[in-house]
Amino acid sequence: MAVQTVATSGTSTVDLGPAAALSCRECGHRVPLGPVFACEECFGPLEIAYDFSAYDTEELRKRIEDGPANIWRYAPLLPVPADVADKPNINPGWTKLVKADNLARELGVTGGLYVKDDSGNPTHSFKDRVVAQALEAARAFGFTTLSCSSTGNLAGAVGAAAARAGLRSCVFIPHDLEQGKVVMAAVYGGELVGIEGNYDDVNRFCSELIGDPAGEGWGFVNVNLRPYYAEGSKTLAYEICEQLGWRLPDQIVVPIASGSQLTKIDKGLRELIELGLVEDRPYKIFGAQAEGCSPVSTAYKAGHDVVRPQKPNTIAKSLAIGNPADGPYVLDIARRTGGAVEDVTDEQVVAAIKLLARTEGIFAETAGGVTVGVTQKLIESGALDPAKTTVVLNTGDGLKTLDAVAGTGLTATIRPNLDSFREAGLA
Amino acid sequence: MAVQTVATSGTSTVDLGPAAALSCRECGHRVPLGPVFACEECFGPLEIAYDFSAYDTEELRKRIEDGPANIWRYAPLLPVPADVADKPNINPGWTKLVKADNLARELGVTGGLYVKDDSGNPTHSFKDRVVAQALEAARAFGFTTLSCSSTGNLAGAVGAAAARAGLRSCVFIPHDLEQGKVVMAAVYGGELVGIEGNYDDVNRFCSELIGDPAGEGWGFVNVNLRPYYAEGSKTLAYEICEQLGWRLPDQIVVPIASGSQLTKIDKGLRELIELGLVEDRPYKIFGAQAEGCSPVSTAYKAGHDVVRPQKPNTIAKSLAIGNPADGPYVLDIARRTGGAVEDVTDEQVVAAIKLLARTEGIFAETAGGVTVGVTQKLIESGALDPAKTTVVLNTGDGLKTLDAVAGTGLTATIRPNLDSFREAGLA
Question: What biological-process terms (Gene Ontology) are attached (chains A, B) (predicted)?
Fold first, then answer.
């Protein structure tokens, strides 16, 4: 691990609003805010420690409600400067929380079923939320290049955010990615570099670059800016509660890739309780994986605390992380809150994408098929209570994973006349 | 033309809010609200006549500002019942008005340049706005099937809206459409019928169906529901002005397909003036076409009042209407407001898509390339004043027209090591 990635003690000098320091998730050691992600004491992951002590609950609530219709309404709770909304940013968030009554009927949910639809973000995935945070950290640390390794959604989010902010972007991808994905990432005009190797090779190279003088001024959103980046997922929790009328959902179903999103949603919910913005009552968090990449689900079912890596083989590519960094934390949260972790087959993913589209008019990415499919399975198994308020996340857009439903097609072909129409039984 | 398509005199009995009657655009003849689109007197197009007389300006403004973050905030100005926001609908609108400072610098605009980005709608095009209106009209008239002819965006918007509303949908398309477009339309689970013939054949068949008993209970959003459907485009004008702080833009650049959107944006702006919601001062409306389908632009440049049909041949397929129904009205509005109609080549469309993505992180459909390209051309010719506040519409999403930028790709390919990185000049 390169030297810049480990924090050293001292005082924070950058202005990132309420963010006070970085704190080790394992040992609690605190270091100043900086572009680092691993604890100098124990190499545990660093996360943001906040100072929320000055907030009055009702003043804060009003400030949020009067804020912009994007994640910056929560600026007082994020590692961003107070004037963040005035800077060029793609301003993700405040996506629809859809009351999914038709889907509820199909699944037998009576307590209220909602889909948090993050396909409404600027580049149509939840990644815009996390990249927007990383961008502010990059600006605070004086970085001039925004970078990442990616095989899909993240590349577009980084490219778009850097373009708006006027920063250079340089995204690293495996050189043999499908042409469609290359186009989606390349259109924003940043540098898009193909690495001769697989995704692991790309990641290894990025870590090497961060430790080298050549990487000076480079902010890798999900590496040296990871503690800031990850906080973006908290905004999903904030929005869900505010959109429910400042109320915790009883149950929430979250997809698992690295597991970071699920842990930060839990963090966000706990913050809202601590701040008095929602009533403190139990909630359950459920994790959703595809069977073809289900290391956390497998560990959960086996009663393990550690996650054994898997080689991914699923159509849910945006969730295909075989060795999820936050896997153990996810297990802990699922068990602590009374939730569960479950997985579904690729066939069930496809069926769930179609079910959501047919019932609610929402065309989800494969990751959305995973959460809807897992919700259905958890209801059938009794792990999820259909009489409770339930929120299911859709984190991406079906237009990006068209191949998954490529079998869908015409229901009939007719000649352009009424006789042919009647013969086809369409009248 | 089938008999049901022509209105007869009488009294409106349906509740569509402030909509009082249908009025002929040509002769002013009024008929009750109904699923009709052509005047019984002169066969001119019918549009909605409203009764706004009860509104107090500041009460109305507050009611709008307190309304939902979608088009239903403008329910008092639309042909929908007052409780529309409580009904299952995909709730489009309130999309971002992006202050495009980077693009402004590239184009030399100093008076403020904004992109109204309708790719943020539920199915990622402005069609959600118009279909949402048609859906309410369909409900009011007791229709049970929502239908349309389409080659793209409209099919998805109808499929999604009908799914959410729990109505049957049946969309007619040419049978040999590209598989990707078929998938996007089919995923919502409605009936998707391929017609053996071209788009004109599809349209002719739909008109035949409306006039036949087999078409009873069918609402064709852009045929027998057209007067209601078309009003959805007014919401673009409302949102732009409200997002500018209840101010008219000086200049607005709108794409032209049938021309309906441009005429309704003009109608929306005039309504805001009449209602006192914005100050009455001059604005200019500019129309944008692709050279390969530029009947209105050609007529404008030739000084004609009539539009001669063209056979479309352009990558901007969502604008490829060779015989635009509202073409003469567009010519009138462009001339009356001091605007213009211009066109750009397919190469300029592609360049403009890339320019917008590179400067603002917005990946537009080909139609967005047309408006940005035309804006650039109008600035260069002096027709558009760079010192004035200018709004450019992006009506769709680049993910739906990936082929247009298929040439975009990797900027470099390297081996996974720092030497290769340096050799490529990326440091």
Answer: isoleucine biosynthetic process; L-serine catabolic process; L-threonine catabolic process; threonine biosynthetic process
B408 to A186: CB separation less than 8 angstroms, yes or no? yes
Count interface pairs A-B at CB distance under 8 A: 230
Q: For an interface test with B, which of A106, A114, A195 has the most B Cβ atoms less than 10 Å from its Cβ?
A: A195
Give chain B's domain count: 2
**AA identity, residue B234:** K
Nearest-Cα residue of chain B relative to residue A105? B166
Same domain, A354 and A284: yes
Among residues A169, A197, A229, the one where a domain terminates is A229
What value does the mean pLDDT take over residues B154-162? Answer: 96
Cβ contact, residue pair A361, B194, below 8 Å: no
Is some CB atom of chain A closer than 8 A to the CB atom of B68? no
What is the model's pLDDT at position A176? 85
In a domain, B309, yes or no: yes
Structural domain of residue B159, as residue ranges? Answer: 3-51+127-229
B4-8, B276-280, B340-344, B396-400: segment of lowest average pLDDT: B4-8
For residue B413, give the chain A residue with the closest CA: A194
Q: Find chain A residues with C-beta within 8 A of B157's C-beta.
A: none
B186 touching A, CB under 8 A? yes
CA distances B302 to B299, B319, B340, B341, Å, are 5, 21, 12, 11
Over the stretch B301-355, which tens digit does the pLDDT of each residue have?
999 999 999 999 999 999 999 999 999 999 999 999 999 999 999 999 999 999 9
Reported as a pLDDT band with limits 50, 70 and 90, residue B33 is: very high
- Taking the CA of residue A12 and the nearest CA in chain B, the distance in Å comes to 29
Do A216 and A364 fall within a single domain? no
CA distance A289 to chain B (A): 22
Cβ proximity of B163 and A105 under 8 Å: no
| CATH code of the domain containing B146 | 3.40.50.1100
Give the C-alpha separation, A163 to A181, whole Å: 18
pLDDT for res A3: 34
Q: Which residue has better confidence, A326 or B5? A: A326
Domain boundary among B172, B196, B229: B229
> Helix, strand, coil % (nearest 5) of chain A?
40, 15, 40
In this structure, the answer to whether residues A103 and A218 fall within a common structural domain is: no
pLDDT one-digit tens code per residue, A217-259: 999 999 999 999 999 999 999 999 999 999 999 999 999 999 9
Residues of A in contact with B186 (CB under 8 A): 408-411
ipTM: 0.94
Residues in A closer than 8 angstroms to B100, CB to CB, are: none
Cβ neighbours around B158 below 10 Å, total: 33
Please give the structure tokens belonging to residue A156.
């577009």
Contact A275, A243 (CB under 8 A): no
- Cβ contact, residue pair B416, A201, below 8 Å: yes
Partner-chain contact A183 B156, CB within 8 Å? no
In a domain, A70, yes or no: no
Residue B237 · residue B265 · CB < 8 Å: yes
A412/B164 Cβ within 8 A: no
Q: Which single residue is written with the structure tokens 């066939």?
A: A347
Tokens of B401: 């027209």
Residues B310, B335: one domain? yes
The mean pLDDT value for B292-296 works out to 97
Chain B partners within 8 Å of A409 (Cβ) = 179, 182-183, 186, 192
Considering the domain architecture, whether residues B163 and B38 belong to the same structural domain is answered as yes
Q: What pLDDT score does A13 carry?
A: 79
The DSSP string of B4-40 is GGB--SS---S--TTEEEEEETTT--EE-SSS--B-T
Determine the distance in angstroms separating the CA of B400 from the nearest CA of chain A, rounded to an integer.
7
- Residue A17 sits in the same domain as residue A141: yes
